[in-house]
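BUG-582 | component: ligand-complex export | severity: low

The export step for adenosine monophosphate jobs runs without errors, but we want the raw record kept on the ticket for reference. Input record follows.
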Amino acid sequence: MEFKVYAKPEPASFRKHPNLPDLEKARAHFSWDDVGRELSWLPGGNLNMAHECIDRHATGTRRGKIALYWEGRDGHTETYTFAELKNLSDRFANVLKVLGVRKGDRVFFFLERIPEIFVALFGTLKLGAVAGPLFSAFGPDAIRDRLADCNAKILITSPELRGRVEEVKSDLPALEHLIIVDKGGREATPLKHYEIDYFRAMEAASDHFVLEPTSPDDFSIIHYTSGTTGKPKGAVHRHKAILGQYLTARHVLDLHEDDVYWCTADPGWVTGTSYGMFGPWSIGVPLVFFEGPFSAEGWYKILEKYKVTVWYTAPTAIRMLMKAGEEIVKKFDLSALRHMASVGEPLNPEAIYWGEKAFGLVFHDNWWQTETGCMQIANLPTMTVKAGSMGRPLPGVTAAVLDDRFNPLPNGSEGLLALKPEWPSQFRTYWNRPDVYDSRFKNGWYLTGDRARTDTDGYFWFVGRADDVINTAGHLVGPFEVESALIEHPAVAEAAVIGKPDEERGEIVKAFVSLRAGFTASEELEKDIKNYVRKRLAAHAYPREIAFLPSLPKTRSGKIMRRLLKARELGLPEGDTSTLED
Ligand code: AMP
């Protein structure tokens, strides 16, 4: 997908801010060692993200500073200082220790957006264990695939969500305990022998914990991400990822001591950890964390109430706000807001122009992915924004557009978006899949899986995915995962899944299905199949459209041709069909 750049006169706010230092010049003198000197480190060259994000503030001048403003879905609010978070995360590290968790063990999080996720996740990092966040919309199959893949030992969840885990618990022999966070006693259910009450365990735990020594290269967090083939793969990051997150939170999000910052991403995804936790807290900036669902009024209320100064969100949300209209924005006092950024999907120029009108500010697009751990290409506050462009590679990043033989292409040509390894927040491997990890590196480049082009000013323009992965509302969905869930439905014989362009969500998941003998297509069956995938896999990944076909087009070797289905759906040329089955 390529965006038209509108031939509009450039508003003043799209132009580079004249008084800010030019980061482009900083590229020439850039060194990761210099960035490292801005962090506090631990004896023996050790580095721990929890120390950088919490402990060093809690033991210094920011100890009484509010680190977290939480607002629950029922309007209940809580605040936490850095000192309180240190105490709580130390306790949680002790809870895990008592349960026999050791350095390197995998501890997973399947929670709503509640403050305990911060406490538990940073406690996990203090122990040197590997944190695995899950999106709360996942169904039992998605949970099982991830936990089984890396033999997770502990899962922290809530009374509302644990039922989905119970369904697959027998497939997870390595999972020893569920820690249940019954926030506000929302749902009192008796605990099973392997379940532990979070609040009781926290009360009993000591608040004295000495950080397990972790080297910069020790694993810190694992985020599962979807590819074209196979089940999602666990991209593993190291403690030293904090260098990249710190740098970009400072210069791309432009965070400073007095800011109040809101990242709307869920902690189940990489944006929700890299920039919903690590980047801002490495600078000591307070976060707003909102549990409630999306609504234009609800979101503006949060911006107003907490006097948010820097806001990081995503194109689908911006498009939904656009739909709600500009008038509603005017009902709120958003005068504290001074910087806005967006990530996860292409940001249409229309959304940028609307933002300019509605807020008097420009959404600054930036590009990165689970594997990169931090932003790589961005529109900095110091740069002229070109609506529709992801921006320019950051200091410390070498990006290029490559041809199919992995050689750099000249400006203007479309090709594979690639990065020069290696940077501190680059993923270290895919859990259990070193072969897939190796396949992402060619000719000295890391292949991102995206297609892009550059212009003569060095700006990068997103063109599309180089593979079949679907980006729906900023969430990557692998067609294989959805197809696997579909064919488990008793009526489905074969299934193929594509991304269909959608005005609001960028893409939606569309499935083509052929039925087993004895079943006939009907609206009811369609609903039933949709519901089945929604419940088993994830609420964001089910096919919003299903087309029933007598059979699906296949190659002579029996592979379903998604490409052909997509071309037919979009009315595009069908390309080479010589391998198509007769
Ligand atoms: P994830 O790994 O789930 O964070 O998804 C990363 C993918 O989302 C990238 O590889 C892109 O395909 C897409 N993406 C992220 N940011 C942008 C952006 N600013 N413009 C276009 N696509 C983006």
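Assignee comment: Attached the raw record above. The first strand starts at residue 66 and ends at 71.
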